[in-house]
TrEMBL record:
This is Tripartite tricarboxylate transporter substrate binding protein. Belongs to the UPF0065 (bug) family. CDD domains: PBP2_Bug_TTT. Pfam families: TctC. Keywords: Signal. Residues 1-23 form the signal peptide. SUPFAM superfamilies: Periplasmic binding protein-like II. The keyword Transmembrane helix does not apply.
C-alpha cells in the first residue's frame, strides 16, 4: 500500500483528521471582509492571536475588501474545506446578500457555521464638535434640516447601514447614507467631521470617546446600560423599540470535517475563557458568546429572513 492510500485508510478509520487537526505549525487564513481599523478587524486579530497561542498553528488575518463584503465572503465560499481557510465576520453576512440579485454564493449552502464569538452593543455616535448633544438633538436636526446629517457605514446593506435605516423609520427622520469599505474609514471621516453620525460597535469608537473626539448619544443592548459608557442612555430608555447588536461569528467553507470544526470550537471556547479576554470584552460592553454552531446556524436563518423582508420593503439596492 502506498503512502497516499495508507493515509486515506487511517483517515477513514478516524485515526487521522485532515486539515487543521492533523498537526501543529500550520497556517490558517482568517478572511475578513472589511478594511483595517473597524471592529471586525479588531475582533479577528484578537481571536487570531489567541487561537495561534491555543492551537500552535498560525492564524493570519487577510482583509479581503470590496463589494460590501462580497469579495471576502465569496473567497471563503470557494475555498477548500480543509481547515486552512476560515471566515470571521460580523452580522453583515445576513444583511448584505439579500440586497444583491446575484451575490455569487449561498450563505446557507456554502458556509459551515463553526462558532459564535462575541456580541457588542451598537452605539449611535457623532463628532464631539457637532451641535447635537443628545439623541433628541440629532433627531430634531434630522427632522427640520433633512439634508444636514450624513451618516457613514461600512457598505451598502451592512449592519451599520440597515440599523440607521430602521432608526429613521422609528423616528420619522431622514439622513443621507455615505457607504465606505469598512467601519474604520467611516469612523475616520466621523472624527474629521466629514460625516455627522454613525452606528458603530465600541472597539471602533471607545478610545475616541474617551479622548474627546466623538460623542455617544445612545446605545442599543438588551442588557441595559453599559459600564464602559457611563451616562449614555439605551434606546429603550429613550422610548425606542430598537434592539440591534453587532455579533461576530466564525464560518468555514461548507464540507469542513466535523472533527476539525470541533477543534476550532474548543479553541474558541478556550479563548473566551481567558480572564484577560473577558476583561477586555467587559471594558467594551461586550459579551462573549457560547461558541455553539447550532445557535449560530439558527441565528443566521432567522436574521436572513428578517433582513430580507426589510430590504425588500424598503427597496434597498447596491
Amino acid at each position: 500500500m502506498n503512502i497516499r492510500k495508507w493515509l486515506g485508510a487511517l483517515m477513514a478509520l478516524g485515526l487521522i483528521v485532515p486539515g487543521l487537526a492533523q498537526a501543529q505549525g500550520q497556517t490558517v487564513r482568517v478572511i475578513i471582509t472589511w478594511a483595517p481599523g473597524g471592529t471586525t478587524d479588531y475582533v479577528a486579530r484578537l481571536y487570531a492571536q489567541r487561537l495561534s497561542q491555543v492551537t500552535g498553528n498560525s492564524f493570519v488575518v487577510e482583509n479581503r475588501t470590496g463589494g460590501s463584503g462580497v469579495v471576502g465572503w465569496g473567497a471563503v465560499a470557494q475555498a477548500r474545506p480543509d481547515g486552512h481557510t476560515i471566515l470571521i465576520t460580523d452580522n453583515s453576512i445576513v444583511t448584505v446578500p439579500p440586497m444583491l440579485p446575484a451575490p455569487g454564493f449561498d450563505v446557507r449552502g456554502q458556509f459551515e457555521p463553526v462558532a459564535e464569538l462575541v456580541e457588542y452593543p451598537s452605539v449611535l455616535t457623532v463628532p464631539a464638535n457637532f451641535e447635537a448633544r443628545t439623541m433628541q438633538d440629532l433627531l430634531s436636526i434630522a427632522r427640520t434640516r433633512p439634508d444636514a446629517i450624513n451618516y457613514g457605514s461600512m457598505g451598502n446593506g451592512s449592519t451599520m447601514h440597515l440599523y440607521m435605516e430602521v432608526l429613521q423609520d422609528l423616528t420619522g427622520t431622514h439622513m443621507t447614507h455615505v457607504p465606505y469599505r469598512g467601519a474604520g474609514p467611516a469612523y475616520l471621516d466621523l472624527v474629521a467631521g466629514r460625516i455627522q453620525s454613525a452606528m458603530v460597535a465600541p472597539p471602533t469608537m471607545l478610545s475616541g470617546m474617551q479622548g474627546g473626539q466623538v460623542r455617544a448619544l445612545a446605545l442599543s443592548t438588551s442588557r441595559g446600560r453599559v459600564a464602559a459608557f457611563p451616562g449614555v442612555p439605551t434606546m429603550r430608555e429613550l422610548g425606542f423599540d430598537f434592539d440591534f447588536s453587532f455579533w461576530y461569528g466564525m464560518f468555514a467553507p461548507r464540507g469542513l470535517d466535523p472533527a476539525v470544526a470541533q477543534r476550532l470550537r474548543d479553541a474558541v471556547n478556550q479563548v473566551n475563557a481567558m480572564p484577560d479576554v473577558q476583561a477586555r470584552f467587559a471594558e467594551q460592553g461586550a459579551a462573549p458568546m457560547p461558541g455553539d454552531q447550532h445557535a449560530l446556524a439558527r441565528r443566521v436563518d432567522s436574521e436572513l429572513e428578517r433582513w430580507t423582508r426589510l430590504i425588500r420593503d424598503k427597496d434597498i439596492r447596491p
